[in-house]
Amino acid sequence: MVGVGQFPKFADQYYAVQEGVDAATLGKLFLIPTAETPVANIHRDEILPEDKLPIHYCAYTPCFRGEAGAAGVGTRGMIRVHQFDKVELIKITPPESGYAELEKLVGHAEKVLQLLGLHYRVIQLCTGDMGFASALTYDIEVWAPGQGQYLEVSSCSNCEDFQARRMSLRFKTGAGENKFPHILNGSGTALARLFVALVETCQQSDGSVAVPAPLRPFLKSERIGPPRQ
Predict the structure, then answer these.
(1) 146-149 long-range CB contacts below 8 Å, 24 or more apart?
(2) From 116's CA, which of 96, 134, 140, 152 has a CA 20 to 30 Å away?
(3) What is the DSSP letter of 125?
(4) What residues are annotated to the active site?
(5) Tell me: the pLDDT tens digits for 68-105?
(6) How far apart are CA 17 and CA 2, in angstroms?
(7) Taking 60 as the threshold, does the pLDDT of residue 136 lie above it?
(8) β-strands 170-172, 223-224: how paired?
(9) pLDDT tens-digit series, residues 23-64
(10) What does the pLDDT average to over 182-204?
């Protein structure tokens, strides 16, 4: 949590674990808010050879976030929940290719929405809206017709060497110099909100939901419903 910049700044927003009834264990372990937390730290305290970069990781995990409990219309139903599943993309790159790799990362996240035929937009965040560790962030928002608004389903960031310095991750150049790499992260999909957008976009006049072609082999159906009368 410290290595990726979530602690100590956001320690009050995540779920601490207690082992049984032993209160002395509370706060020694936490439920992860995103797969970025463990995956970006895989190479902490290492010095990697330059020829191994860039390194790409993809992880699928449940995510737990305590800030979801705030009252309001935007926190009801499946739009904002305490637990959700998410695919996370992580890249460790040389500094000179960090921003080119960020553009590719955004493209990978966009590809999912393109294959599903969902309308979306990409927004570059201003400094005040970016995360604590990020140097540049793009949000991908998918249109949810029933909500009448865009829902964020992906956030892609280049944290430059901020996280690498915190976790003491370096790489050795061909000239023998130790440098800090750029660490990038991006959500492939946040499944709860993606489900909302899919159902609202693909719902038919009889109440059934047309299944997008890429999902049909997995659901074994072209349509869900219609609902029983």
Answers:
(1) 146/196, 146/199, 146/200, 146/203, 147/79, 147/196, 147/200
(2) 134
(3) P
(4) 65, 80, 152, 155, 193
(5) 545 555 556 677 788 889 999 999 999 999 999 999 99
(6) 17
(7) yes
(8) unpaired
(9) 999 989 999 999 999 999 999 999 999 999 999 999 999 999
(10) 92
Evaluate if residue 228 carries a pLDDT over 70: no
The sign of the dihedral angle between the CA atoms of 35, 39, 40, 45 is positive
Please name which of 176, 220, 225 lies closest in space to residue 205, comparing C-alpha atoms: 225
- Quote the pLDDT of residue 142: 96
Cα–Cα distance for residue pair 23/21, rounded to 1 Å: 6
Tokens for 158, please give them. Answer: 């280049």
DSSP 139-173: EEEEEETTTTEEEEEEEEEE-TTHHHHHTT-EEE-
Closest CA to 131 of 19, 28, 4: 4
CA 195 vs. chain centroid, Å, equals 16
DSSP three-state, residue 94: coil
Contact at 8 Å (CB) between 34 and 63?
A: yes
The separation between the first and the last C-alpha atoms of the chain, rounded to the nearest angstrom, is 49
CA–CA separation, 172 and 178 (whole Å): 4
CA distance 133 to 41: 14
| Cis geometry, peptide bond prior to residue 8 (ω within 30 degrees of 0) | yes
- The torsion angle over the Cα atoms of residues 191, 196, 197 and 201, rounded to 10 degrees, is 140
